Structure formats: C-alpha cells, structure tokens
Amino acid sequence: MSEDEREQMMQLMRNNFDCQDEPKLGIFWYDKFGDELFGVVKIEATDVPYVNDKAERKTIKSLHKSWWKKQEMRLAAGKEKNAIFRQDYTQIPRGRIFQRRDGTFEIMCGSWMDDNIKELIIDEFDLQKQKVEIVIDEHWELGHGWSEDM
Asked: Where are the beta strands (DSSP E) in the chain?
C-alpha cells in the first residue's frame, strides 16, 4: 500500500469517527423481557433522501414485515436460533424513526412506549441532541400492521 493510499484510508477512518453520533433513521423492536432493542436497522439521516419535494417526512426503506420474514427463513434453515421469530411480528413492540422537514425526529410507536424505552431508542439512534417527538399510532399497537388486503 502506498503512502498516499494509506493516508486516504486514515482520512476515511477519521471522517467515520467524527460521524459516529450522527442521528439515524430506522426500525426497531423492543424486547420487554431483556429490556433492550433488537432487530435494529438504521441509516444516518443525512444519507436518506425525501421521496419527493412534497414529502413531509423521510425514513428508511426497510419494512418490519420483510425483515421479520428473513429472520423466519433463517430460523427454518437453522441459521438463526432465536425462537421469537416464530411469533407474529406485530405481537412484539416495534417502531420506526422518521425525520420531518423541520428537523424534528419522530418515534412512531404504540401506546406501550414509556420513558425507559424512549431513552433506549434515543441512545440507539443517536438522537440525544435532536428535537424528538413520540407519535402514538394504531399501526404500531400490538397486533396491528399492514392489512393483507391492501
């Protein structure tokens, strides 16, 4: 490796270090027995575009249902050991992080949210320095999800 290539690599590492605390958008589940988040998929908010000029919010493309189905397939193939993936994904507390155009981050979730879970989410998605609002919506309540008829 040349000295120039080495310096480029070091600069890239320094840049990544400086961005560790950038706020993230994403999805998560909450394990009430372990009091922790799992199934977290996140991307830096600056790397996610708005879908179009009229979009009021942005978030990542990953869907809870799709992610869960992948875990179910891994479990069936013996590549995953956690039996939780045999359950209906809507029966596990889950949520999504959005960002509004005004910069506010929204934690979309069900009424199961409490201050402890909020702090776990803020820490996981690096939202400590951001304006954050909790938005309770029926879609995120236990047992609810996308209609199979849509």
From this structure: 24-31, 36-44, 57-58, 94-100, 105-109, 132-136
Predicted local confidence at residue 9, as pLDDT:
74
Kindly report the pTM of this predicted structure.
0.83
Tell me if residue 21 falls in helix, strand or coil.
coil
Q: Are 59 and 48 in contact (CB under 8 A)?
A: yes
pLDDT digits (tens, 9 = 90+) for 70-104: 999 998 898 888 888 999 999 999 999 999 999 99
Which among 29, 26, 107 is positioned nearest to 59, based on CA atoms?
26
In terms of C-beta distances under 8 Å and separation of at least 24 residues, what long-range contacts does 103-106 make, across chains too?
103/130, 103/131, 104/130, 104/131, 104/132, 104/133, 105/23, 105/25, 105/45, 105/130, 105/131, 105/132, 105/133, 106/57, 106/132, 106/133, 106/134, 106/135
Which single residue is written with the structure tokens 């008829």? 149
